[in-house]
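Marked as duplicate of an earlier ticket. Keeping the data here for the record.
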Amino acid sequence: MTLRLPPTAPPAARTGHIPADPDHWPDIARLPRASAVRTAVARRLVERAFARLPLRIRTVRATPLGHQRTGHDSSVPTLTLHDPDAFHRRIGADGLIGFGESYMAGEWDADDLVDVLTVLARHVDDLVPATLHRFRGAWVRRRPRADRNTPDGARENIHRHYDLSNELFALFLDPGLSYSSAVFDPLPAEPVLLPDAEFTAAQHRKIDRLLDLAGTGPGTELLEIGTGWGELAIRAAARGARVRTITLSEEQLALARRRVAQAGVADRVTVEPADYRHVRGRYDAVVSVEMIEAVGAEFWPDYFAALRRLLAPGGRVALQAITMPHDRMLTTARTHTWISKYVFPGGLIPSPEAIARESTAAGLRVTHDTGYGDHYAETLRQWRTRFLREETAVDALGFDPVFRRMWEFYLAYSEAGFRAQYLDVRQLQLTADDSEATR
């Protein structure tokens, strides 16, 4: 396992609350350079923002900020600052990237991390006064050009996330290894950890709905863009389809091939290392599950053009895509975020408007659209609960405490986005403009 993180200039070394290897975690092991003025401004902005939010902020050296509540109020989530100076310095240097890095360093914690992050997600547009929005460029960074999803760049970006370790993903995913939103029936009424069989059933329900949208049945020639670990391809083959599935992940490729063979469908499923831009042929059905988020806005026209080019007459495309509001997408597209730095380099979540625009430009039209945002929040809660209970196993795989806090923050941050309805996930059916196929 190799963790590839962007190098930084070496500021003065420090020892954080969470021991961090400076080679793997340069920006966690060392505090960033930030002027006293930037740190003071960040402190003032954070204090003013938190004071307007339904949060209780507790520090180790000061009276609570925010609503100045005393005692314990279980209805209000609490953020505890263990090192306020480091916390504000990181935000002063790197804005929201610094906020996430401060959590990775152990400089703050929360009694309920998802609840705290949900409050922040609901008020993301209000954290900085409108009069200061014009100075936003002083706290944000442009995305690195090295993260562009060119054919070589896309392979490297996929490698940095999906090739971490098959064993790591197996610790928190369902036994079918589906790494996308499940569809529950019904949604759990209480926050309980579902048995593996029930969680897999919810993932199969998601897959089956997509295969239905794609019109998958006996003899269907199906192309899957983004193999994952092969569960959708196996399930499509069980319907009698002939499946070609492509991936850029070396780890997923190897395991998906083994799983296809073990399922006894190797005669109907081909798993290939390939970029969607290089695939040729025509298919009755094209399915792509939460892969568009890894394409990047620059290459969305190429992606939708490929979908149209690969679709046989009368064929259907079934997509599952995470979405965000259009104005937030435009802002995020220009910004290097904590997620793009540490979790999904080169990634960008599209808006529904962007999907509709790119589809139309490619000669496709949306003929079905259903949202499952609350189902993704529950899926992420299931993953996070499983991940947290496997601390010893994660450690045994060679992942250190900084990684564990990073992954916990990633899962909680994502769950909060769906709980706040800042994010959604959609299942879409697309057909060619000249096709008579309808749902």
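See parent ticket for discussion. Residues 84-104 form the longest helix (21 residues).
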